[in-house]
Amino acid sequence: MKYDIIVIGSGPGGYVAAIRAAQLGRKVAVVERADIGGVCLNWGCIPTKALLKSAQVYAYCKNAAHYGLELEGAVRPDAAKIVARSRGVAETMSKGVQFLFKKNAIDLIAGHGRLAGAGCVDVDGTRYEADHIILATGARPREMPFMPIDGVHVLSSKHALTLDRLPETMIVVGSGAIGSEFAYLYASLGVKVTVVEYLPQLMPLEDEEVSKTMERAFRKLRATVLTSTTVKAVRVNDAGRCEVDVEGKKGAETLTADLVLSAVGIKSNIEELGLEEAGIRVERDKIVVDEYYRTDAPGVYAIGDIVPGPALAHVASAEAICCVEAICGLDPAPIDYTTVPSCVYTVPEVASVGFTEQQLRTQGVEYKVGRFPFTASGKATAAGDRDGFVKLLFDAGDRLLGAHLVGANVTEMIAEPTLAKALGVTAHRIARTIHAHPTLNEGVMEAAEAATGAAIHL
Fold it and tell me: Pick the catalytic residue: 66, 404, 435, 437?
């Protein structure tokens, strides 16, 4: 059968590409070898947030007395039921994507797709033709040779999503978004967690002030944080416990735990796609593309985790729309990767966009800072969630360069600074935009006021 566009992969890049193409009148097919909706909907973004919500509710129950409430009996987490709820949420979202495929008359082809010559895709021995082929095959957890994943003692993030019992102890290797979220999840449910991070700070991609705040938050949970620490080897002893050889500030030592979670990054799914035969370049595990995601092979495109750029679901979706609209002749603006928000769903949450202070100092860029602590927020005080702050960075012309937020619900608040940065909004304009009171979002206004020297509540 001949299609206008075939998309290989149905994650947040693939399914968005397919739906946008169908909206623009193209005949579209999606090839998927696993779960509809990809890792994000089934084994990443969505089910992890369901687990984290259970942990948050558990924390509220334990602290009910703080809100003037009395609970009878003990509140205990049931790992199996928490996981069952999470899997139900993921299944609901996957079914939603299938519904959208039907609504938009998109054909779903089950199986492994690979390039098979100009304008051809082979799916397990059956050939399909298309004028344009979009590769959106995503990524999987990276496995390190010194830390082999067996799914029983040493886990990937996928395994950690479906534990039916809580271990007493866990070592999390890596403190990016995935590692930090799982570390928070299990520590808040009562597991004794140790986080091991190779780089000098927790959440190494975040602003240094954010990282220090989150390290204090983890220690409040009685989680141990070891930064500037290298994992040398992981093994399982005769008692079935994990032994982790590390070298850090205290020198060499061996840590022990019931389970180890490997959260050391992801690896692009670019194997067995026929890239070499198609003459498509790959550099550092990523497919080389231009600003409209065209590869070296005519009519073949790539988006999402398999191309350079942040490996985030919303980035893949944005790339999908840009790519498809370019194919359809709409002349979209290329994506500005300095205006991509990033979120970590711990408690407190972390959200950021644009440049960090460290990056601006390294580049020699003159900047000024506006801060607002949530300890001064009426809404945060009323809610009992006063940890964190809003920090905005502005250039000499008062244009927003970066925003870094820590606190309750800041992943919902980051949209305003993201829009402000994209539009080149000044500190004065943000400060003079009326924000509803009382809200956490007032913190953005207050931080902008602080940058202009007109802070009211500080």
Answer: 437
